[in-house]
Structure formats: C-alpha cells, structure tokens
Write a structure and sequence with these properties.
Oligomer: single chain
Distance between the termini: 42 Å
Strand order of the largest sheet: 3-2-1-4-5-6-9
Largest sheet: 7 strands, parallel
Order of helices and strands: EHEHEHEHEHEEHEHEHHHHH
Radius of gyration: 19 Å
Strand content: 5-15%
Structural class: alpha/beta
Helix content: 40-55%
Shape: globular
Length: 341
Amino acid sequence: MKALVTGANGHIGCNLVRALAERGYEICATVRSLGDSRNAVLRAIPGVEIAELDVRDADRFRSLCENVDTLFHLAATYAYVTGDRTTDEDIVADSVAGAEAAVRAAARQVRKMVMTSSVVTLPMAKPGDPPATEADWRTDLTVPYFHAKTIAERRAWELADQYSVKLVTVLPGGTAGPGFTRRTPTTDLIEGIMLGTLRFGAPKGNFPYVDIRDVVSGHILAAERDVAGRFILCNDTFPTIRELTELMHGIDPSIPRSLWYLPDFLSPILPYLDQLNSRTLGSPRALTPEFVESIHGRLFSASNARAKAELGWSPQIPIRQSLGDTIEAIRAMRRAEGKKA
C-alpha cells in the first residue's frame, strides 16, 4: 500500500507518516522545501521518501500521485495571528488552490483521498444549542483561518463530485500532544498558560481539545475503512479555558491557574492584552480582534458520534496525559531555543 502525505513535516503530518510506516505503508512525504530543518524528523523514519512539492503545482502534484493508493492531503497554514492582511489573504488562496490541485491530482489514479479539515468549519453554538454535526457548515468567515479551512473543504467536495474522487474529510479539534516540530495556535495557547498569560482571568470560552495520537488514528481509519464523507475527530467534552488552566496547574503547580473568568465587557481589549503579554512575558501571540469577535458569546460544540459509529474511532488519550506530554514538549523546545523552560 502506497501513501502520499502532503504537509508531512507539520504536527499531524510527521506523526501520521510515522504511524503509516509502522503499519508497513510505502510512503512519499512531501514538504514545501527540502532544506527545511524540520524534515529531520521525517528523515529519521526508515524507508520514507521525501519530495519537494508546492501544492499549487498541478503537474508536479499529479506526477507524485502516480501509483499511489491513498492521498493524505494535510498541507495548509495553521495560524491565527499573521501580522498583515496580505498573509491572511494568502492563507485563504493557498488553502483553496491546494485543495483544488489535490483533488485533480487524485482523479482517475488514487483509490481514496483523505483531506484534513478542521472543526472550525463547523458553526459555533450558543449555550444550550445542540452540538454541530458533519451536516453543518460555518457561515461566519471573518477569521482568515476559519475562512480558509471552510471554503477549501467545500471546494474539495465540489471537485470530488465532478471528478468522481472518493474523498473523506476529517475534522480534528485543536490538536495537542507530543511530536510537533514548530509552534501552532494550539501549542501557543498552552505555552501562554505556562507563562502566566491567564493568571488574572480567563475569557469565557472553551477549547475543542484532541490529542495528536487520536487524530492520527482517525486519519488511518478514514483511509482503511470503506467510508466516505466528513468525520469530526474531537474529545467527548471540551474544557473551558479556565478548566484548561486548572488541569495544567494540577499537572504542575508552578503553572498559574486562572483565578476567575474575565467579564464580558473586557472582550474587545483581549487582543491588546495578548499583545502586552507577548511583549512582557514573551508568550506567542494568539488573538486578533476578528477571532475574539467571532467566538464572543459562543462555544465550540461538536458531536463525534459519526466517527464512533462508522470509523470505530474514539478518543483514547486522556486530556491530562496529553497536556502533560505537550507541556514537556514545549519545555524541550524552549530549552533548545535558550529560553527559560
């Protein structure tokens, strides 16, 4: 069985490649640049071919898909704070172009395509609303990353129907756990909590947490089971941000927990507090005005019932274990950077 994995040096990508190799797959792992230092993780996995690919290059993409049984399309930019509108626009354009190229490359030569989408393609809920399912789609696209993931997946489904590609999309929550080679918005949140950014209060929101090992198993089940459609991969319940700080404080009492919830009237200034924390504590930037406005008064809420019923998937890694592993990985990264861990 041969698999092509795009975005292979990302958090999900490198862990998926390792798991596929352990299952005996022949793997071509694609990266944006062969000179990227993060590729060292892939080079350490025996038998993996590493290839350079700009996912917008349709001819190159199609050539790499020859004799491939399963295409795992993961390549995308996972970022909330970019610093400029041009980069935000590029995130959207690149996501859509990559999805289009992937489906066209898979057409008439790949048995199945598994595409990594996200729970951010689902609508958020007001307290008391039923959880979102795979039938639901986000309509608030003001956050560039939300916009990119939503329209890229919708475009993939349009083209999959047009080209008769057997497509499965998996919608993981905010993915944490070990084995990442660079920071993500998920690890940024956890690192910020470690540095004390929420010591004096947490916003009234929650986080759709899931561990990387459960996300990888969901991708493999989506490829190997005779299924199609969308599958939400998330934990059964989502902790509030304050509960997240409590869990981390329970793992390591030196990590400050939030003392209370911040009042709603402070929501508009959260991006500025985030910027202040970045300057004074050295924490990664995590919030933009668009992001805060988009989630204000709403919660992440999604059902994993379909993944359980049709994939036989369920989250196996307890959140406490996952957070502990993430904390250790962040500390190792900070030590390597010469920062206080």
